[in-house]
Amino acid sequence: MNLIIKGKELQLYFSKEQLNNMVAKTANQISVDYQEKHPIFIGVLNGAFMFMADLIRAVDPQLKFQIDFIKLSSYDGKQSTGIVKALTGLKNDIKGRHVIIIEDIIETGLTITAVIEEMKKLEPASIKLCACFLKTGKQKINIQPDYLCTEVEDKFIIGYGLDWDEYGRGLDQLYYIQ
């Protein structure tokens, strides 16, 4: 079956099984590192929602945590504008808390760097970054996630929460557009 979005055929990058294995490995490491810390997972919407849902279901059920979300935008179609627009904020106070920011993909590093700088102002005990994907060769700011599922090539990817003008987010596998 050929998947076509906006007239472009999608090519499979990672299967659902491959994604599940990557997420489980990442969740296991977080479970070990945060056994007694009661972290708050903060998902960056809209892209991180599928990854975050799978990740928190995969962490140790004994791990005590909370979740929250922020919504940002720095995209116009297939291109990052480089300008971060904050759309909605946190509902929980993170002062003194161990924060794990959940991001779908890091490309230029501009968006997530802005998020981290804003969160530092709220005085958390710690901030760690967890990303599903790190796109190689695109970074303008060198930022390495503390937890990373995998690196991806410099291709336009879609699915597993990632979209193209809001199309394709619900795909349970990762695809690329040639």
Structural overview:
This protein is an alpha/beta fold and 178 residues long. The protein has one domain (17-150): Rossmann fold (3-Layer(aba) Sandwich). It is 22% helix and 38% strand. It has helices at residues 16-33, 49-58, 110-120, and strands at residues 4-5, 8-14, 40-45, 66-76, 79-88, 98-106, 126-135, 147-152, 156-158, 174-177. Strands 5-4-3-6-7-8 form a 6-stranded mixed sheet, sandwiched between helices. Strands 1-2-10-9 form a 4-stranded antiparallel sheet. Helix 1 (16-33) packs across helix 2. The longest helix is centred in the first third of the chain and has 18 residues, at 16-33. 29% of the residues are buried.
List the helices and strands and how they pair.
Layout: E1 4-5, E2 8-14, H1 16-33, E3 40-45, H2 49-58, E4 66-76, E5 79-88, E6 98-106, H3 110-120, E7 126-135, E8 147-152, E9 156-158, E10 174-177
Parallel strand pairs: 3-4, 3-6, 6-7, 7-8
Antiparallel strand pairs: 1-2, 2-10, 4-5, 9-10
Question: Which bin fits the share of residues in helices?
Answer: 10-25%
Query: pLDDT average, as an integer?
Result: 90
What is the CATH class? Alpha Beta
How many domains comprise the coordinates?
1
Organism: Paramecium octaurelia
Pfam families: Pribosyltran
Catalytic activity: IMP + diphosphate = hypoxanthine + 5-phospho-alpha-D-ribose 1-diphosphate
Subcellular location: Cytoplasm
